[in-house]
Sequence to fold (404 residues):
Amino acid sequence: MANSKKLQNLPLGTQDFGVLRDNDYLYVDKTNYVYDLMTTSRVLFLARPRRFGKSLLVSTFEAVFRNRKELFDGLYIKEKTNYDWQEYPVIKLDMSAIPCSGEHSKDFEKYLNAALGDIAENYQVKLEADSTPQRNFSVLINQLRKKTGKPVAILIDEYDAPLIKNISDEPKAIQMQEVLKDFYVVMKSEDANIKFIFLTGVSKFAKVSVFSGLNNLEDLSKNPKYATLLGYTQNELEYYFADRIEQLAQKENKTIPEMLEKIKYWYNGYQFNENSEKVYNPFSLLHLFSTNHFEAYWYERSGMHGKLIKIIKNNRFDLSQIEQKIYEKEIDLFDFKHISSLLLYTGYLTIENVCFNERGGKEYKLSFPNHDIRYPFLRDILSEYANISMADISGHIDTIETCL
Fold:
């Protein structure tokens, strides 16, 4: 039975926690995780696919560090903890918003400097326009510490966006890689002036030394404790969206259990370690309940499938091996040329199960998470590889699925 809570507006396209809360948008409360991470850890990294809620999570951390306590009325961190609310200086960078399509990496460095300059201006700190981004980053951290007397919270969203955006242009991606290595290593040298570091991205790139350079970096990506930090669980779906599920069931003339099964088939299935609960793609669910219509929302708007299919074709990847077993090391040492781990981190595959081989090593069985991904991805693969009409594609997809 649907609960009687008033239907709140859905936060479509809203990644700012303050905007979301000020306008009474629906918010699935994840602040129990936020509290736990802020009080038990200091240097954190989380990899999740695009459009999975990373930016909203970063914005939530920002609101806490800016001491915007009023935004958390009714939420776990304010109502059920004794969190010590204080304001700290914040450096928040969204690397996906910094242009990186110029011919040279110097163009990217210029825009990165501009982003640092905007933050410095808000705190009335002066940076040198002709200095390097890494130098300005260091100066900014130092000056914020001196000006406020408090250590700095550093929040970097989509740290690897300049690499992902150039994923099909390896020479350009390598240029971006070198800039990022020099930039992120600043955080190690400024450790004494830093309160908290949180980085998000799609992947843990092996050749970006941020991970070897930072002290005590905690990678949350496969930690079972935080497997449902992003994405919606079955319980969250049924609690926060109960009225909308009932509306959709009435529209489609289905019972609630039948409706839940259809939603699960389309949008559930993401699993981030071997034993964790599967979660729903939040982007697709929000669009589903906005339109009351089933579509491949995440796939069609992810912006990645064209580039990935090009990489698959250029590397002559055996399509029968898309849903395959890979070793744990192959997941951890991610690079552009390892197709399976690339598809895993970008959200087109997920972990289905884990087993141990005869040598005791972990092997991860990968699979498509749901119908939102599986059907359109195979459709586009067929369209790229073979001269098959759209009318005939469904039958060919059935054949491919049988072989996988």
In short: Residues 105-122 form the longest helix (18 residues). The radius of gyration is 22 Å. The CA atoms of residues 93 and 163 lie 16 Å apart.
